[in-house]
Every structure is written in structure tokens, then in C-alpha cells.
Design brief:
Distance between the termini: 123 Å
CATH class of one domain: Alpha Beta
Pfam families: Sulfotransfer_1
Helix content: 40-55%
Strand content: 5-15%
Structural class: alpha/beta
Largest sheet: 5 strands, parallel
Protein name: Sulfotransferase
Family: Belongs to the sulfotransferase 1 family.
EC number: 2.8.2.-
Number of helices: 14
Radius of gyration: 33 Å
Strand order of the largest sheet: 3-5-2-6-7
CATH superfamily of one domain: P-loop containing nucleotide triphosphate hydrolases
Main location: Golgi
Shape: globular
Number of strands: 10
CATH topology of one domain: Rossmann fold
Order of helices and strands: HHHEEHEHHEEHEHHHHEHHEEEH
Length: about 350
């Protein structure tokens, strides 16, 4: 009897042992299979790979906030050190043209996460007193930025000031130069309008545009009048071309920037070798103001100052025609030099 019980017990142990060994072998085989499969198709590889960023600016909201605090003077030295912030010399400058849309262009380019703008016109290269302060003074006027960002400043007087091309060349001979232009007669009237408004604020009288733009003795266009002289774009550009090749200039259509800004901004992105980041989402038309405003994100929008888009005074049509005929040959030469044609009269 005892012999039978021992035999039965050995049989049960054998069965249990076989089951245990089988289970272990199954687990080993299963783990081995998973180990072999893992490198072939890990979980991460089944997810779409993120598009590689040329410029690592995905923490944009935080960075814009930090740079804003720096502009207000609220950021600490520790924050500056921790985030590797620097004041960089500009790698691109909007050199003109006055009343061509320089402020609008600068603000719109600032939509790009790789761009940081100098908020004020520095007037370093066109002002002898500022220039004498040296390049470190100029750098100190630049905003804080991350090393991979591009600093841009704008001072429209640069375009027409004789000393400026050589001075900028000495700082950086490979700098990118942006020129925004409008139809020359319209630009001249806009220039006059801004000066007129300033005179009226001070209760001062000012001549009518026609009297300034036309020489009363000869009845010809008065090229001594600054608003007219500034609109002779080719004369100023030729001076710049003594120092910089035409490839370092990009001409922006200021009239188109008002009516359809995105294509112009995309051309500038390409010229500056920036990844395309500005989209139609960032630009919306404000019917009240009559021009486009900027949308940085879901909570932060910005329109240009109310002084932009001033109403121009009526100008004698015969004077307008005379000016258009005067500018025409200069415009043709400007098209030839820059390779960009406009539908100006």
C-alpha cells in the first residue's frame, strides 16, 4: 500500500515538474522573441518622426516672455547667464527707405521665432556722435537674444547718408541689407505728410507740397527738396554698391506689404536663410485701421501705431504727373540694377 502511494506521489511530482519546466521554456522563448523583435520595431519607431528643426525654438512662448522681461529691465543676471543670452550685432539691417514701410517690415519679421528686433532706431552709422562712441556702445543698444537668433535693426536714414555704407562695411562686410520701397511719388507725399503733421502739432505753418516739390523759378522738379531726393532710389543704391555686391541686398515691395504681406515676408525669410515660419495665421486684416495687424499667438496681437497710415493731402494732378515722369528713368535703372520690377508709372 505504501509502495503504491509513493509511486503515485512520484508520478504527480513528475507531471508538476514537466509543467514547470515547460512554463520556463515558454517564457524563455517568449522573452527571446521579444528581445529579437524590439530593435526591429520599437514603439518610438512606429510614431512619425518629428521634422528636424533648423533652429531649436520650440519653447517660443517662454523665450519671448523672457526677452520681453529683458527689454523692461526685469530679468536678472542669473537668468541671462542661465539661458546663454547675448547682445549680438545685427546680421541684417533695414537701411531704408523712409516712409517705405520700414517699421511695418521690422514688426512683421519679428513674428519669426529666429528674429529679434531692436525696438528703437539706433542711428549709429548716420550720427557722428553715436558712431564715435564705438561698436561696443552699438552692441549695448541691441536686444538680448539667444545665440541662434538673428538681430535686426532699422534706421531709414542709413540709405541716404553718404558715410553709412563704408561704416557698415567696416563692421561686417557680409551683412544682409534690406531696402523697402514704395512708388516714389507716393513715398514723397507720405514723407511730406509726416513732416506736416509734426509742424501742425507745434502750431507751425508749412508750405504746400506742390510749392516744395516744384521749383517756382524753373517749374521743374525741385531735387533739392529732401522728400524728392530720397525717392531717387538708384542714386543712393549706386553709392552702396561701391561696398556691397547686389546679392547682399533684398528689395521689399512696400506697397504689396500693405495689401498682401505674406508673400513679401516669405521672400525675406528665404533671403535671410531662415526656415519658413511666418504664416497667414500671424497676419489678419483690421478693417478699422485699414491694414494688417500681427498675431503672435492665441493671446497676443499687435497693430502698428495709429500714426501709421496717415491720410495724404490732395496734390495737384499735374504735379503728380510731372513727378512720375521725372522718376521714371531712375525707376528703370533701379529695376535693371536690382532685378526686381514694379508697376510704377
Amino acid at each position: 500500500m505504501l509502495f503504491k502511494q509513493q509511486a503515485l506521489l512520484r508520478q504527480k511530482l513528475f507531471v508538476l515538474g514537466s509543467l514547470a519546466i515547460g512554463s520556463v521554456l515558454y517564457l524563455v522563448a517568449r522573452v527571446g522573441t521579444l528581445d529579437r523583435l524590439q530593435p526591429i520595431c520599437p514603439i518610438e519607431s512606429r510614431l512619425p518622426s518629428p521634422e528636424p528643426e533648423q533652429i531649436p525654438l520650440r519653447t517660443l512662448q517662454f523665450k519671448r516672455g523672457l526677452l520681453h522681461e529683458l527689454r523692461k529691465g526685469n530679468a536678472t543676471k542669473e537668468q541671462i547667464r542661465l539661458h546663454n543670452l547675448v547682445q549680438q550685432l545685427p546680421r541684417a539691417i533695414i537701411i531704408g527707405v523712409r516712409k517705405g514701410g520700414t517699421r511695418a517690415l521690422l514688426e512683421m519679421l519679428n513674428l519669426h521665432p529666429a528674429v529679434v528686433k531692436a525696438s528703437q532706431e539706433i542711428h549709429f552709422f548716420d550720427n557722428d556722435q553715436n558712431y564715435a562712441r564705438g561698436i561696443d556702445w552699438y552692441r549695448g543698444k541691441m536686444p538680448f537674444s539667444f545665440p541662434h537668433q538673428i538681430t535686426i535693426e532699422k534706421s531709414p536714414a542709413y540709405f541716404i547718408t553718404e558715410e553709412v555704407p563704408e561704416r557698415i562695411f567696416k563692421m561686417n562686410s557680409s551683412i544682409k541689407l534690406l531696402i523697402i520701397v514704395r512708388e516714389p511719388t507716393t513715398r514723397a507725399v507720405s514723407d511730406y505728410t509726416q513732416v506736416l503733421e509734426g509742424k501742425e502739432r507745434k502750431n507751425k505753418t508749412y508750405h504746400k507740397f506742390e510749392k516744395l516739390a516744384i521749383d517756382t523759378n524753373t517749374c521743374e522738379v525741385n531735387t533739392k527738396y529732401k522728400a524728392v531726393r530720397t525717392s531717387i532710389y538708384t542714386k543712393h543704391l549706386e553709392r552702396w554698391l561701391k561696398y556691397f555686391p547686389v546679392e547682399q541686398f533684398h528689395i521689399v515691395d512696400g506697397d504689396r506689404l500693405i495689401t498682401d504681406p505674406l508673400p513679401e515676408l516669405q521672400l525675406v525669410e528665404r533671403f535671410l536663410n531662415l526656415p519658413s515660419r511666418i504664416s497667414q495665421y500671424n497676419l489678419y486684416f483690421n478693417a478699422t485701421r485699414g491694414f494688417y495687424c500681427l498675431r503672435f499667438n492665441i493671446v497676443f496681437n499687435k497693430c502698428l501705431a495709429g500714426s501709421k497710415g496717415r491720410i495724404h493731402p490732395d496734390v495737384d494732378p499735374s504735379v503728380v504727373t510731372k513727378l512720375q515722369k521725372f522718376f521714371h528713368p531712375f525707376n528703370q535703372k533701379f529695376y535693371q540694377i536690382t532685378g526686381r520690377t514694379f508697376s510704377w508709372p
